[in-house]
Design a protein that fits this description.
Number of strands: 14
Shape: globular
Structural class: alpha/beta
Number of domains: 2
Helix content: 25-40%
Order of helices and strands: HEEEHHEHEHHEHEHEHEEHHHEEHHEEH
Mean pLDDT: 95
Number of helices: 15
Bound molecules: (4S)-4,5-diaminopentanoic acid
CATH superfamily of the largest domain: Type I PLP-dependent aspartate aminotransferase-like (Major domain)
Length: 445
């Protein structure tokens, strides 16, 4: 179903037409194109705290938050000040700065499994480099990934991927060499038996298992009890590197990431988004014995002109300290306040599902949440195969646009997670739930 936008989005429509002439599909990342919900992407002019304003002057409570990074909301004064002060001192040196060590130390303090950190410029670079490192460390080639998990757009990871690939309903991307894809073994999320069978067949040739600890690029799917620990046990037994991709969940599910929520001790962790305070960044991090393989400490090569960029390091430090430092009066951290609001929001949506009779599967951990519109009540999504079978796309589309018209901006795909910031206050949550009630009734039809 395609919904056309009204004049409420007139300027966005003009800008999108102009963008399409010079940018493929009019966007620089596919999920922004609104293909999953029809209509025209909304172009934004500014953001402040929990709110954004589009180019037509409409305001929204924002639950996309740049797809996760903005844990403190838009333009938080501490982050803006850190960026301004660093910009005045220089934006890039291509040489080490103290900021990189400070941010690495902070990450090591927050994420217990991490002993060393290498900063890069995006989540894609982080996962791509982590896999090269796992292959270098083990001397093996095969990797295991889960169907519907998304780890960026590197060739070997663009196999049965989530996020925009799922939203657009694309087959695996042309341009990925068959020989590269052949080294990527795929299994359904939460299917530990299938992983065990893979290890029985290929055990000694598998370099790495890479997994999202919460599958947040095919909606919001929690790991079943024992699934992540099962992966840890299998990888230990077979000398395989376990890579936990926390680009989405890092500093969002909990200060120590989703791995701390589920008690998992991975070999390598991939980070991005929050760690750069809203500027482009990524990192791969983990056990010193493995990280020492990275050049120049070891032979595994990886480099980048803007890696460890001082603006991103300064913004990341400001964001993490502001979110996680415990206030002197012992009051909750800003992260804890944001997580409390996310809980209220998720509980409210659960109640509305019951009240309106619209079946939803709602999940939330820390400051993240997600919900599926289900075709039948009682259906459960625990893998991508389940999502394909049970998810009601038409209802989500009606809900999405009804929410936009009521001033609430959600990800334009139910295969993406939602995010709450410390700037969302109780009024924002109450307004959102009122809008959600009306929108659920519209979606129900
Ligand atoms: N990979 C992001 C969603 N999981 C999308 C990034 C973007 O389009 O900006």
């Amino acid at each position: 179903m395609t919904l056309t936008t009204t004049d409420r989005y007139a300027r966005s429509k003009e800008l999108f037409a102009a963008a399409q002439a010079v940018i493929p599909g009019g966007v620089n990342s596919p999920v922004r194109a609104f293909r999953g919900v029809g209509g025209t992407p909304i172009f934004f002019a500014r953001g402040n705290g929990a709110h954004v304003e589009d180019v037509d002057g409409n305001s929204y409570i924002d639950y996309v938050l740049s797809w996760g990074p903005l844990l403190l909301g838009h333009a938080h004064p501490a982050v803006v000040q850190a960026i301004n002060e660093q910009a005045a001192r220089g934006t890039s040196f291509g040489a080490p700065t103290e900021l990189e060590t400070e941010l690495a130390e902070l990450v090591i303090t927050l994420v217990p499994s991490v002993e060393q950190v290498r900063f890069v410029n995006s989540g894609t670079e982080a996962t791509m480099s982590a896999l090269r490192l796992a292959r270098a460390y083990t001397g093996r080639e095969k990797i295991v990934k889960f169907i519907g998990c998304y780890h960026g757009h590197a060739d070997m990871l663009l196999v049965q991927a989530g996020s925009g690939v799922v939203t657009l309903g694309l087959p695996d991307s042309p341009g990925v060499p068959a020989s590269t894809a052949a080294s990527t073994l795929t299994v359904e999320y939460n299917d530990l038996d299938a992983v065990t069978a893979l290890f029985r067949e290929h055990g000694d040739t598998i370099a790495a298992v890479i997994v999202e600890p919460i599958a947040a690029n095919m909606g919001f799917v929690l790991p079943e009890p024992g699934f992540l620990q099962g992966l840890r046990d299998l990888t230990r037994k077979h000398g395989t590197v376990l890579i936990i991709d926390e680009v989405m969940t890092g500093f969002r599910a909990a200060p120590g990431g989703a791995q701390s929520v589920f008690g998992i001790d991975p070999d390598i962790t991939c980070l991005g988004k929050v760690i750069g305070g809203g500027l482009p960044v990524g990192a791969y991090a983990g056990k010193k014995a493995i990280m020492q393989m990275v050049a120049p400490a070891g032979p595994m090569y990886q480099a980048g002109t803007l890696s460890g960029n001082p603006l991103a390091m300064a913004a990341g430090l400001a964001m993490l300290h502001t979110a996680f430092d415990v206030p002197a009066d012992g009051s909750p951290t800003l992260f804890q306040s944001a997580a409390g609001r996310a809980q209220t929001l998720a509980d409210g949506i659960r109640s509305l599902s019951e009240e309106t009779g619209v079946p939803l599967q709602v999940g939330n951990v820390g400051t993240m949440f997600g919900f599926y519109f289900l075709r039948e009540a009682g259906a459960k999504v625990r893998s991508y195969a389940d999502a394909k079978q049970h998810v009601d796309a038409a209802r989500f589309t009606r809900f999405f646009w009804a929410m936009c018209e009521r001033g609430v901006y959600l990800a334009p795909s139910q295969f993406e997670a939602g995010f709450v910031s410390s700037a969302h206050d109780t009024v924002d949550i109450a307004v959102t739930l009122t809008a959600a009630r009306e929108s659920l009734l519209i979606a129900r039809g």
